[in-house]
Amino acid sequence: MRWMAAASAAMAAWMAFGPATRRRPIDGRLVVATVGVALAGASVGLGAGADVMVAIAIGTVAGLLVPGIAASRARRRRQSAQAIWPDFLATLRARLAAGEPLPAATRVAAQRSGRRFERLAHELEPPHAVRGFAATLAAVRAEWDDPIADKVLGTLAIAADSGGSRVDEVLAALSASVADELRLRLAHEAATTQQRLTALVALVAPWVLLLLTVATNPAAAAAFAAPGGRVVVGGGLAATVTGFVLTHRALRLAETPRAGA
User: Fold this and answer.
1) How many helices and strands, by DSSP H and E, does the chain display?
2) What are the tens digits of pLDDT across the range 215-227?
3) pTM recorded for the entire structure
């Protein structure tokens, strides 16, 4: 049944990393994990006495869980990183009020803002700051998948070019904007968490029940192995995969696009 395992892994990998995620670079380790879980799921299905079609479906659904979990973890990491920006801006404004120039104040604020900002602080150190303040900010923000970083660092670059007494006013408005955006994001996340859990149950539960059914009921296993049963399983798999793709796209629509991305 090598072709069955290959089909299951290929289907899961394509649906997870195909058209729905084409704008972002593919993580090789995530692809390997998806294929591995898909193969394991298909093997479990075969070991439980399931038909080839049922095993392919179970392997595909199991593989789809991997990018879903990875996306959830990445979203939590982004939220944790974004929560630091108000403190960063508060420190920055305090240093500017003390008379420090904007690049030095930005470096100190980055040094006091945790590990995520170590790269920014390092690049702004005098021995390394050879590209200029605005160029350094542009290089750092290009590495961060964070729309708020685009907003903050882009504004700082413009403030450095314009200078003058209005810098504090600009930063005050920026601080208020970032705080409001974070509050809206937290409210949105709280409102959609239950929906995500419901969608996960709707995705997994039917296939867990199908696996248990074919593993404990030989008559049911024979029914799903018949042509009509395979049509039912294939239709269910198509509906599950379609729901996964649409849900993924809907979550992408809720993300703030990156400036210049």
Assistant:
1) 11, 0
2) 898 888 889 889 8
3) 0.67
